[in-house]
Amino acid sequence: MANIGFIGLGIMGMPMAGHLIAAGHQLFVSSRSARAAEAVALGATACDGNAAIARAADIIITMVPDTPEVEQVLFGADGVAEGLSPGKLVIDMSSISPLATKDFAARIAALGADYVDAPVSGGEVGAKAATLTIMAGGGDAAFARALPLFEAMGKNITHVGGSGAGQTAKVANQIIVALNIAAVGEALLFAAKAGADPAKVREALLGGFASSRVLEVHGERMLKRSFTPGFRIDLHHKDLALALSGANALGLPLPQTAFCQQLLNSARGNGEGGLDHSAIVRQLERLAGHSLGDE
Amino acid sequence: MANIGFIGLGIMGMPMAGHLIAAGHQLFVSSRSARAAEAVALGATACDGNAAIARAADIIITMVPDTPEVEQVLFGADGVAEGLSPGKLVIDMSSISPLATKDFAARIAALGADYVDAPVSGGEVGAKAATLTIMAGGGDAAFARALPLFEAMGKNITHVGGSGAGQTAKVANQIIVALNIAAVGEALLFAAKAGADPAKVREALLGGFASSRVLEVHGERMLKRSFTPGFRIDLHHKDLALALSGANALGLPLPQTAFCQQLLNSARGNGEGGLDHSAIVRQLERLAGHSLGDE
Predict the structure, then answer these.
(1) Residue A131 contacts B where some CB pair is shorter than 8 Å
(2) Hey, is the C-beta of A161 within 8 angstroms of any chain B C-beta?
(3) How many CB atoms lie under 10 A from the CB of residue A187?
(4) pTM of the predicted protein model
(5) Exactly one of A170, A193, A224, A238 is catalytic; which is it?
(6) CA B92 – CA B94 distance, rounded (Å)
(7) What is the mean pLDDT of residues A83-105?
(8) Contact B252 A168 (CB under 8 A)
(9) Which is catalytic among the residues B170, B193, B200, B238?
(10) How far, in Å, CA of B79 to CA of B70, rounded?
(11) For A197-223, what is each residue's pLDDT tens digit?
(12) How high is the ipTM of this complex?
């Protein structure tokens, strides 16, 4: 059993921390966190800030919204780096820039500590059920040290490669999910506008090469007009922004991802950033002047 | 057991006809077909042309390349319509225009006969294994009459709706498959260009929301550089042309489908129309100046 610092007790982080406590680990959280008391009630120990967490724990997990927050938590005032000593391990499970991640890993390595990037997919449901998909990047020994913790929080765990490879896989995941949602949206709109029942069409397609998790899950949400997240447009917008800023830096054209991010911009412009990402279809419906259903 | 005319003994049609003969039906084929002798050897009876087939059979199945060929076979010189009489049933299993299909069905109905559009997906492999996905449009009684024949040729059989609904579902299917292939292409190229192993990334993604038949099958083809069809670029190009001409007629914008058809144009311009549709990735690689692998 390990001494683990956990920074980022949000919608995802709190149930993940809970699974680690339930697996018998000693958790350290920041007393400055809004939900510190909740974690302490589960068995965690409160520390006075993030540097103190890094002093108390051998492994420090971060689960925060975006790249700037990870940088702040690791390297800002009262950051993890201040309390870190050689031999410790930092695991960032946030979904952030793959390029920044390589830099963060190098800066942590310069302090004598290891770094694993390990973003997740599966959302709040997966976090609560401990069925998250975890995509990890880092050295073999560091991954092996992190693996028992991952197994307490997730199901499909892959060591993708070196530093940044986990974040790269997560970006690739978000590209595919967004484009698959938009593809299902165009196809069902074509079916509806051509006079067929889009629900029947979806059913006919589930058995063949068009089948996907997105056709199952998000296709159904589009037809039932059930846009309660799930995974919010705002977050997917952030993830495709990561894809496009990475693509810009790499000189890589991602024309379809760029277009799909404009659909997410449309959603935000129409005040729908808080809806589930299956609401991408609503932007295609705006273009079409035709909806798959009433709400 | 039924008397069935079968017109279109191609790569798909010949094994489909074979399954109908094996199921005990009496088949009539045209002696003018290049592969008539092959069908006769399986037990079919040769007739002198398509009008003669329509006189001999109660149910006439067509399985030809595109909309003009269906029109020619049904309504051209020596066409099915010449030999048709009230109470017979025409089943078009080609993949053609949903809008033209509604017209063909109305013209067949004017002759007192029924019409079912029933395009398939699953390719040559599915035709040979009798595991085709069949999407049918037409009246309830006509569908019920066709169903035992479908069951001899396929596995996932859906009565989607009235005339044209089968073709509409097939177009929707082809939109999703093409866009999912292009999505996997962009995602794996991002991964490779960012320095990760795209094969490991694909593996990590198969367990989560990005998973699809396309990620499984076509993703693997992209990585193994295995572009032997499968399903040819030329045919998928035709299918997206059906989607876009339908969309034009309906006043429906399909921006992503339009872009993806340009990728198929790129493939044809580069002499790759005969490759498997997973070679869409090769056009993204041209844009990127970066390939997922050597060939």
Answers:
(1) no
(2) yes
(3) 32
(4) 0.95
(5) A170
(6) 6
(7) 98
(8) no
(9) B170
(10) 10
(11) 999 999 999 988 999 999 999 999 999
(12) 0.94
